[in-house]
Specification:
Layout: E1 15-19, H1 25-51, H2 55-67, H3 70-95, H4 103-121, H5 127-156, H6 160-181, H7 212-231, H8 233-243, H9 245-250, H10 255-282, H11 293-303, H12 308-332, H13 337-358, E2 359-363, H14 367-374, H15 378-382, H16 386-391, H17 398-407
Antiparallel strand pairs: 1-2
């Protein structure tokens, strides 16, 4: 008794995703630039729908809010420098696959310590000594604040993402407490400008510019970070630990030491940034002194693929959009959240373009071709044209042909 086998035809999907091997850098850069242009186009459409401004008006206002005056240009570069420094701070930990979400808290607690040094020692020590005390204290506290979750991760394998995130809230509450204690007038909730009359603890101007020193420090730290991560032994160990801790242990790398050392460096850079915010820019501190830069830095570091040089471009782009959007909100009296929408639209397009850089969309073949192949019967396959059969050599004649070739 024979049983007939039932053939099941599986329909191929219309398209499928395929992982790209390696896209050339110039093509990837072109895709990212197109994504930025698309993001600006969406902003123009969104702006026209909300405030009835033409795309030209929106682009001109973005430019006016950032490059119209010398003060605005310097403020743009200062915002870029601070965001770049925090991006450099989180990058070593991210390369190690240690997800340090606590840059905001590490910077904020350093702002608090810098302000405390200016308040308590402003009239007791010379200004250079006060600046040195505030700098060392801010860097040390930032490193200590980052070292706490690193110790728990290295020895007890705790979740560093939740740990560092909770440390942000602790830093915010501690800062709020001391802002209330040192508020002027008492109970106002504002410390006010620290040492406004004596300017004790304020960073000196370079070439008559308040922000030039911060910008120069950011430039130097960018090149130092690039060399450290790509050409130093410590940078190599960070990359190996990030790829595989088992491999790192096998080749003799002390994983615990790498985790602790890297987080100390990350926290120290956050401490330096907090010092520059208080001593070089604001000359005061509040609960929102950092203003979310620690979280924005995470996005900048990821967009730049942990490349310090590329972080400079993305930091400038985000600072440009934020400053320009602030000018639009000022002229149109929109809510301040409009600036966040502008930045979010562009970043969304940049993140979306990474899909096309890493994957390709492949469509299935034409259905007609498949149906033609499927309709060929076994009898059709058995039949061969006479021309093909005539052209085929007789297998029995092959040995004779081989002997003739050997004799010749």
């Amino acid at each position: 008794m024979t049983t007939a086998k039932k053939t099941v035809h599986v329909r191929e999907p219309l398209f499928h995703l395929a992982k790209r091997d390696n896209m050339p850098r110039h093509k990837a850069l072109l895709i990212r630039l197109i994504a930025i242009a698309v993001g600006l186009l969406i902003i123009c459409i969104f702006g026209y729908a909300i405030i009835q401004w033409t795309p030209l008006d929106i682009l001109v206002t973005l430019k006016e809010g950032t490059f119209d005056t010398a003060n605005r240009r310097w403020a743009l570069m200062e915002s870029t420098a601070l965001l770049l420094l925090l991006s450099l701070a989180v990058t070593p930990a991210f390369r190690m696959r240690f997800w340090n979400i606590g840059a905001e808290g590490q910077t904020l607690i350093s702002c608090l310590v810098t302000g405390a040094c200016m308040l308590k020692f402003g009239d007791k020590v010379p200004n250079p000594v006060l600046i040195l005390i505030a700098l060392v204290s801010a860097v040390a506290v930032g490193a200590l604040w980052a070292l706490i979750p690193a110790i728990f991760k290295a020895f007890w394998n705790t979740n560093e993402t939740l740990f560092t995130l909770m440390m942000n809230y602790i830093a915010a509450q501690i800062t709020s407490y001391f802002v209330y204690i040192w508020s002027t007038p008492k109970g106002s909730g504002h410390v006010g400008v620290i040492n406004q009359s004596t300017q004790a603890g304020w960073l000196t101007n370079l070439a008559g510019q308040d922000y030039l020193l911060t910008i120069l420090i950011a430039v130097v730290m960018t090149f130092v970070s690039y060399i450290y991560l790509n050409y130093c032994k410590h940078g190599y160990e960070i990359s190996v630990v990030g790829e595989s801790e088992k491999t790192a242990r096998y080749i003799g790398i002390n994983v615990k030491t790498v985790i602790l050392r890297t987080m100390i460096i990350s926290g120290a850079i956050c401490g330096l940034t907090g010092f520059l915010i208080v001593a070089g820019a604001d000359h005061t501190f509040i609960k929102d002194s950092v203003g979310g830069l620690g979280f924005t830095a995470i996005m900048v570091s990821w967009l730049a693929k942990f490349n310090p040089i590329a972080m400079a471009f993305f930091s400038f782009l985000i600072a440009f959009l934020e400053k320009g959007a602030k000018e639009i909100t000022t002229q149109t009296r929109l809510d301040a959240s409009f600036g966040s929408i502008v930045v979010g639209l562009v970043i969304f397009c940049i993140i979306g373009c990474e899909f096309f850089i890493n994957y390709s969309i492949r469509f299935r073949r034409k259905e007609k071709a498949k149906e033609a192949v499927a309709n060929v019967t076994p009898s059709d396959r058995a039949e061969t044209p006479e021309s093909e059969s005539d052209s085929e050599e007789d297998p029995e004649n092959k040995p004779e042909a081989a002997e003739e070739e050997a004799e010749s």
